[in-house]
């Protein structure tokens, strides 16, 4: 195998590892009316890009979900991942997004 072939194989293997983890995480995000999409994997640099969709677009804690949940799980299980970057799907308007789930849920007592 040449270097390019090895890099393509590594990219393919690592992409699949992340895709499998995303599929494991998705039901938890979907239970609140949102979704999680794998956007890109840079196997050489260890960077994973994801996008929160659905009710996550209007959720006040979507950044916490991304950092404390999704990033923690991916980096904890895949030692080669150095960074998880994410955003929200902004194609949906706030009211439509909010109607899909808990949206801007704030715990009682606040």
Structural write-up:
The structure is a single chain. The protein has 110 residues and is an alpha+beta fold. The chain has one domain (3-99): GMP Synthetase, Chain A, domain 3 (2-Layer Sandwich). The protein contains three helices and three strands. A three-stranded mixed beta sheet has the order 1-2-3. The protein is elongated and about 45 Å long. It starts with a helix and ends in an 11-residue tail after the last helix.
What order do the helices and strands come in, and which of them pair?
Layout: H1 3-30, E1 34-42, E2 47-54, H2 62-77, E3 83-88, H3 94-99
Parallel strand pairs: 2-3
Antiparallel strand pairs: 1-2
Give a quick set of tags describing it.
110 residues, alpha+beta, GMP Synthetase, Chain A, domain 3, three-stranded mixed β-sheet, 3 strands, 21% strand, elongated, disordered C terminus
Full CATH superfamily name: Fe-S cluster assembly (FSCA)
> What quaternary form is this?
single chain
How do the strands line up in the largest sheet?
1-2-3
* Extended strand count: 3
Instruction: Please report which band the strand proportion falls in: under 5%, 5-15%, 15-25%, 25-35%, 35-45% or over 45%.
Output: 15-25%
Shape: elongated
What is the level 1 CATH name? Alpha Beta
Structural class: alpha+beta
Helical region count? 3
